Amino acid sequence: MAGRKDAAAYKRYTYEDGNTVRHIEAEPDYHTKRKQRQEERELADRKRRHRRAARRNRERALAMNPGYVGFLTACVLALAVTSATVINLQSTVTMRQRNIASLEGDISDLKIDNDTSYKRIETAVNLKEIKKQAKKLGMRYPSEKQIVYYTIDNSDYMTQYSH
């Protein structure tokens, strides 16, 4: 039984990969190893230099000198003034549009009032009654002698004098 335990332990703690013997790789010579170490050092140095340069660039990018801060402040102030001006102009335009709409409404109301007044006056006047009253008062149509005709030269106005 002892043999079986040993065989089981052997199987448990060993690993077989196929039935062939592996070839042992030849150990690199000293010069190759030295070159590899040199390349690794150079690569590590390059990485270190890149990290330092990146850190310096980040620090430089984050650094704000007074001139840059002044420039940014001037830009923000110009933007604020421009924004305030645009908002002010928009509110002025809106106010004027409302005022125009109000005035147009007033004009419309006045036209309606004018039209109703004209219709009221027109219907209130009876021309037949006026002719009848005029005849009663002794008025009559003008004769040919009483009518005076004017000719207008190429001027824009005419002056009329009464007799």
Keywords:
163 residues, 70% helix, mainly alpha
Q: In which range does the helix fraction lie? A: 55-70%
Please identify the structural class as seen in this structure.
mainly alpha
Mean pLDDT across residues: 83
Q: Give the total of beta strands.
A: 0
Radius of gyration: 56 Å
Q: What is the chain-wise order of helices and strands?
A: HHHH
Notes on the structure:
With 163 residues, this protein is an all-alpha fold. 70% of the residues lie in helices and 0% in strands. The protein has four helices and no strands. It has helices spanning 2-13, 30-62, 66-124, 127-136. The chain is rod-shaped. The termini are far apart. The mean pLDDT is 83.
What is this structure's SSE topology?
Blueprint: H1 2-13, H2 30-62, H3 66-124, H4 127-136
